[in-house]
Design a protein that fits this description.
Blueprint (H helix, E strand, L loop, with lengths): L13 H22 L3 H29 L5 H25 L3 H34 L1
Helix pairs in contact: 1-2, 1-4, 2-3, 2-4, 3-4
Bound molecules: fe (ii) ion.
The site of fe (ii) ion has 6 residues, from helix 3 and helix 4.
Length: 135
Amino acid sequence: MAYTWSKDLETGNSLIDSQHQQLIKAINDLLSACATGQGRDTLHQTLDFLVSYTSKHFGDEERLQQQYQYPDYPNHKNLHDKFKVFVQDLATQMKASGPTTTLVSKVTFGVGDWLVNHIKREDTKVAAFIREKQH
Ligand SMILES: [Fe+2]
């Protein structure tokens, strides 16, 4: 089942929102590939994208938090760092054992659920803080 973009995922920051949409789209593309039996073939591409794009996206978010002196920055950065290790580890597993179905589901639901929860719980707090500071 695909992840749907909803109001509660919106931070109101257009750069961050568009990057979040790209990330969710990558997971949804993998899910649609799974629906037609192409999941394992698509996994390589999805992981390549996730490794590079999460790193870019987190960098952009972290710069924004530093710029506005977001007080929970160290904790937020720590969550990002852990997740980068998780994604990197999935890529390493794929190199070692190939695109297994277990790995496909770790990417779809492991990565997908983390992203959605992180956006809802953490990124919306950052966006609210920035909005407050701008006023
Ligand atoms: Fe974040």
